[in-house]
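Bumping my old thread because nobody answered last time. Still need a sequence for this structure:
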């Protein structure tokens, strides 16, 4: 299936989920993260959810990371296909971007080569670990700057797409895991 077809399909599927159900699924997803061996690392990059797009709510996962005294890094868009990454602290101030994403105003910048684990936003993924995002290339650009051994973990309300994504290109970065509320996929 083509990426643009999957974007449309999964945006529609997300829109059908009630806020209560999305909250329950996000909590289950955070609990599923305990099944994978990621808890001995230092820097964890996580996206902040776009509320009006009914994305996975990452706050339960952030709370889980904070409860384990992990260093959490959050992104800020700074140009075409470019993110900066800031350490999340008690003093981090946020401003909503033009896309509705809460972004840090400033703070302690963490370079890509320090990040151990990245929780990656997505709309869909297939059984080989290919993902479909919103199509702007921010995360593929960012992930290509991370170390080769940085773990890439997708977060999805839905199971893997059984049909492989047919228009994957050389700049697309595959996932190592994808966490859903009912299953953890390993690639």
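Sorry it took so long. Here it is:
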């Amino acid at each position: 299936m083509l990426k643009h077809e999957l974007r449309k399909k999964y945006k529609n599927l997300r829109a059908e989920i009630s806020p209560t159900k999305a909250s329950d699924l996000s909590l289950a997803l955070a609990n599923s993260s305990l099944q994978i061996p990621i808890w001995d690392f230092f820097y964890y990059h996580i996206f902040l959810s776009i509320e009006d797009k009914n994305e996975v709510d990452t706050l339960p996962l952030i709370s889980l990371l904070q409860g384990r005294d992990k260093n959490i890094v959050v992104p800020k868009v700074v140009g075409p296909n470019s993110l900066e990454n800031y350490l999340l602290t008690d003093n981090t101030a946020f401003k909503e971007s033009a896309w509705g994403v809460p972004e840090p105003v400033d703070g302690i910048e963490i370079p890509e080569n320090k990040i151990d684990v990245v929780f990656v936003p997505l709309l869909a993924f297939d059984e080989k670990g290919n993902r479909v995002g919103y199509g702007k290339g921010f995360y593929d650009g960012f992930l290509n700057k991370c170390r080769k051994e940085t773990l890439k973990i997708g977060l999805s309300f839905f199971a893997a797409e059984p049909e492989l994504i047919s228009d994957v290109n050389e700049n697309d970065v595959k996932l190592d895991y994808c966490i859903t509320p009912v299953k953890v996929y390993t690639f």
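The helical segments are 3-15, 19-32, 59-67, 138-145. Let me know if any region looks off to you.
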